[in-house]
Structures are given as C-alpha cells and as structure tokens.
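Supplementary Methods, section 5.1.

A reviewer requested that the exact input to the structure prediction be made available. We therefore reproduce it here, unchanged from the version used in the analyses.
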Amino acid sequence: MNAEVLSSPRLTDADALIADMGARARAAAKQLAVASTAAKAAALKSAAGQLRAQAAAILDANALDMEAGHEGGLTAAMLDRLRLDEDRLSAIADAVDAVAKLADPVGQEIDHAVRPNGMALSRIRVPLGVVGIIYESRPNVTADAAALGLMSGNAVILRGGSEAVRSNRAIHAAFAAGLVTSGLPADAVQLVPTQDRAAVGALLRAQGLIDIIIPRGGKGLVARVQDEARVPVLAHLDGINHLYIDGAADPDKAVGLAVNAKMRRTGVCGATETILIDRAYAAPLAIIDALIAAGCEVRGDTDIAALSPHVTPASTNDWDCEYLDAIVSIALVDSLTGALAHIDAHSSRHTDAIVTEDKAAAERFLAEVDSAIVMHNASTQFADGGEFGLGAEIGIATGRLHARGPVALEGLTTYKWLVRGAGQVRP
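The structure derived from this sequence is encoded token-by-token as follows.
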C-alpha cells in the first residue's frame, strides 16, 4: 500500500492496514528485544534532539489542531490537554531524555533459586512485544509512549485522536527521524495514518500481532476497547479522585492541598473531583472560600450549601463525575469511617488522599482505601509517572492486572523463566 492510500479518509481495508503495521512492528520488536541499553538510550537522545530541532513545525501543527478544536467546540479541559507551547514541548523532549537515563528493565533478574537437584532457576524481565496505544487529545502521549516502548524493548503502534492528528504526526515524524539516525528500526514506533474509526476496531482484533492494548481517553473510548478487544487490555479509567480533610488536619495544609489538588490543572486525571470534610474539622468555610476565590465552582451537599450562598447544591450524579474542569463537589462526612464508605462507593480507584496530623488515621486510610495511588498530606496532582521518578508514563492503570498506578518501563515488561541444568532428568 502506498502512503496516499493509507492516508485516505475513505480507507476501508483497515484490517489489512493493521496487519501490515503489526507484522512490521513484530519484526522491529525482535530487534528491540535484543538491543543494548546503550543503543536504546542513544536512539532516545537522538529522538529528543529531533523534537527540539523540529519544534517550529510541531508547534505550527498544534496551532492548526487548536484552531480546529475551537471551531469544533472542544471543552476548555480538552483544549488544555491538546495545547502545546514552547515550555510544554521542551518538557516533552526532556521526558524522552529522562527515559534514556532510566535503568533498563529488560534482562533484569527478578529472583533466583537453586533446586535440590542442582537446577538453577531465575526469572528475568522481557518485553511484552507489540503494544497498541489508543489515546485522545494529548499529543505528549505520542512521545511518552514511543520513548517508554522503545526503552522497554517493545514496538508500539499509536492511534491518536482526530483532535490532535496534526500534532501527533509532527511529533511522530521527529521521533522516527531520531530512530533512523541512530540505527534502530523506524517500524519500532508507528502511527496509524488514518483517522478512520475502523482502524481502532482492527487494532482491537489483531490477535497474534498486538500483545496488549492500552487505551487513554474518556469513558466512551475505554468502554469500547474493553467491550471489543480480543487482545489483553491495560485500562486507564476515570480519575474520580477524593481529598479527605480529617478532623485532625492542619488548616493551612488543608486549604493549600485542596486548592492545588483541584485547581493546579483541572484537565488532568490526577485532579481532585470530590472533597470530603470531617464534621470535626473546625474550618470548612475557609476551604470553600479559597476554592471559590481560585475560580472554582463548588457543588455541595445540604450541609456544605448551608455554609455559603456561593455553593450550588450537588446532584446525585456529582459524586460520580470526573469534571476535568474548575468544578468540585464537597460533602461533610461523619468521621474517617464515613469518608472511607463514601470513597468505596464513588472512587474510580485512581487516586485518593487524606489530610491529617493523626498518624493512626493516616495509616488506616492508606491501608483501607483500595485505589492504585493512596496519599497522605500530598496533592493528588502528584499522580504522575514523572513525579514518581518513572521518567514518563504510558497511563495510570486502575485495575489489578497486569500493572497498577503509573505504568512506565517495568509495567511494559513481563517475565520468563530461565532453567540451567546439568543433564537432570525427572524421575
């Protein structure tokens, strides 16, 4: 197939397209699986250099996406996720450089044992193989996913959303140029060249070619992937995150954390969406006022609404809503037990935090909240692979298999057993 056919919006042979890309990715993955750490790091440094060198072209492409997004009625949160500027693009390149400096997980020995018969057993980390990543809005995912895939020895097939199509193509072109100049196969990082929705279905049906699918996007995308996929899925679901202000919380910390957790960036999955305040906490109005002063709409239960005329009464749906906007729901709860019950009923198992100076309460919260990330006296906005020292992340997995929380290099590997014997036969 020539490039003109592949880029056509009328493309109907999506299965053939993905089969071709998958076969090329599989061949590239074999090369990456045995590539040295130095070779992978050099390729990533070259890719980061290309992202910087081609910054003008990438920003021009993003400007066109932003213009189309405004005309298409994208929400403020979606536009914030889409927007690139010099600082954000520089951070993207820096993240690729950071991945190059991380410890290579491939070949790491997880454990080792010698059996009574003398056989030596070890488990070592190996790449997953070919990773399909379906995502929306955020063009930085193109570079992050490519970098993490490469360093963990995996080939990746990327399918970004139509709202970021020009940005994704420009970033991918720069990254691929870095691979080519470093001697690693360009097919190690491929971008699906059509926005035809049939290509997503073909990715989800590509058993034997794609080893795992990672969706990053809204409920609709993730639901479709989970319903239709015939290959394993590593799901990144809603960030319905809670901040619980315990009765023993320090007031200054409580206000500072509430405002930062909600308002630092409202469109990220680590943003707090619900604040729970213990009835024993002495200054709930200060938290409400600080959020309103920061430009946040507050929706509260009956008790919270009674504290301020600026609070909008919350509906039943508010407690299960990922706003991704300058909106927060607040409720008063009866003790830590009440907070735990609310979180258990409404959390998406992404990130939940407690603010308290009571060590016993903090330890109980950390032990009993069943989320991928649980925090004490820290903003939920830290729910990010880079902030965890992972360099970048492919997403934050909220399930229990195969990885949980920020998924970076280690999460993109599996393991195999190595058995070294000396002629042992089984009796």
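Residues 1-11 have pLDDT under 50 and may be disordered. These observations are discussed further in the main text.
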